[in-house]
Amino acid sequence: MKSLNVLLVVLLIFVYGCLDSKPKPPGTQPTHPLVKNLSPPDVNKPVKTSPIPVKRIKPQLPNDDQPALIMLRDEQPFSGKISMKGSVDIGTDFIDFKSIEGEKSETVRILYRLPQDMMKLSVDAFDGSIEIMELSGSQGANRQTLVKEKQSLRFAEFWQISEKPLEVALGAFTSIVQQKINQKTKGTEYTEAEVNIIDKGKSVSTIPIGESTLVKTSVGSLSVYLELSHFYNSDDEGLKQYPSGYMLHLWVVGQR
Predict the structure, then answer these.
(1) pTM of the full predicted structure?
(2) According to the model, what pLDDT value does residue 12 have?
(3) Strand pairing category for 152-162 and 142-149
(4) Cβ atoms 145, 250 nearer than 8 A
């Protein structure tokens, strides 16, 4: 009985002590009289920021004098294929195309810089059509551009790589044909491939590389500039990165 009374007294003293005691402040809380009554700042409070506007870069041709071409669709770099009819506006360094199909209006801009020795493209506006393709990638160039006024060719540019000789249709009866290389020059990376213009089944001209050539065809009088036409040989030592194939880059301007 005596032990029970002692235990009860100890329990009462413990309970009274807990009720009367005050919780100790955390060790990080300041105790100096000047700051002890101040409320601490919020921890990890989200910071409110305004989004930084993204400045859209306007595509433009390289700042040099080399031939160049850039395709834009609705002011963005174009990739894919298009064949449409609409209004064409030709400037000194651009071709604007606007097509209205139903309720949808679509715009295409072609920025261009012709080879220096080539006939200039006449500033003009007319109803016509475009056929463009831009599928270039890590394996090389694959681009075609055709601008026509009815059946007359006004502008074309082709930059392609293929395992076989390339053939480009300029119209129903007119095409540019790259000839097959029957004998490769041993130890040479590139071998020049001849290019002919075929009109109504006959060869009407052989196009030299690096020169502007005027040719009369069924799609009009054409100024043709062959920038390059080669067979790329990857059989030589150290040239295995890309497969062997034909390369063709040419420009065409039609006279009115």
Answers:
(1) 0.74
(2) 60
(3) antiparallel
(4) no
